[in-house]
Amino acid sequence: MIGTRREQLAQKAPAHDRLAQERLAQVRPDLERLGREQFARERPTFLAPSPDPAAAAGTRRVSLRRVALRSALALLVVTGAALAFGYVRFASGIASREPVAVPRTDAIVVVTGGSQRIGDAIGLLGAERGSRLLISGVNEKTGREELAKLNPSARELLACCVDLDYRARNTIGNAIETRRWLRKHGFGSLLVVTSNYHMPRTLAEFAHAMPGVRLVPHPVVPDQIDTSGWWNRWSTLKVLAPEYVKYLAARLRSTVESDPETSRLSVIVGGRKPVSAKPAEPPAPEQERRSQVKNSRHDG
């Protein structure tokens, strides 16, 4: 019995071996794949391939470019948002009505740019809101007679209490010439008359040139420009947007220069010298004729 049992097991053994070999052949690819993955994860460092220096440098350059591009885009977005917010504050702060109650000051200055400004300034002088008026930036072809024709009721005021400035070429020049005029007369407070959209930049330039002078704004609301449509009206936007840029330039310039009269930056920003070399006010025709007669007698 024992011998027969052994013979039966011996006959069955090859069949078991064949079955095991077949099963091993089936799972061998999976075992080999798992072994390769395990080896790759646990590969010793001395078997790892050495990195290519050129490839590594290229990767770093690409990463730096991406960081620089993202930083530039972020800076652009922040700058744009700041400018947009600043424009909203600038435009919404422009006066849409002229002030009713006007305080009295030592003197009045009006920056030329429209006949309405000069008329309002002469009216303020007649109302004794200041003892003297400076019209700054007058065209060299415009004299007192022309101003008197435009303002017939103010002929006496123009003759006694109004000074004309022909030297200022821009708003920077207006501030410089007004400072000279204030120092000459010893004034300490000033009523500033100009258009409402021009007032922020005018006050910035005047405060920079005359830090110790009390400035009182008197904005003139022009009929041609409706500043209430600063956000949806193209005719208003094309006036306010450049004015806002000039206002920012004036504020930034005032932080780096000490005196606009001696600064090269004022010339660069304004595109020319802010003050011309012409006399402050050309002599009247009668005064010029008398001077010519006096000089001819002296020569004779």
Give a brief description.
This protein has 300 residues and is of the alpha/beta class. It has helices at residues 2-41, 53-92, 115-126, 144-150, 155-160, 171-185, 199-209, 234-256, 264-270, 285-299; strands at 107-111, 133-136, 162-165, 189-195, 214-220.
Description:
With 300 residues, this protein is of the alpha/beta class. The protein has a domain at 107-284: 3-Layer(aba) Sandwich (Rossmann fold), CATH 3.40.50. It contains 10 helices and 5 strands. It has helices spanning 2-41, 53-92, 115-126, 144-150, 155-160, 171-185, 199-209, 234-256, 264-270, 285-299; strands spanning 107-111, 133-136, 162-165, 189-195, 214-220. Strands 3-2-1-4-5 form a 5-stranded parallel sheet, sandwiched between helices. Helix 3 (115-126) links the parallel strand 1 (107-111) and strand 2 (133-136). Helix 6 packs across helix 7 and helix 7 (199-209) runs parallel beside helix 8. It is elongated.
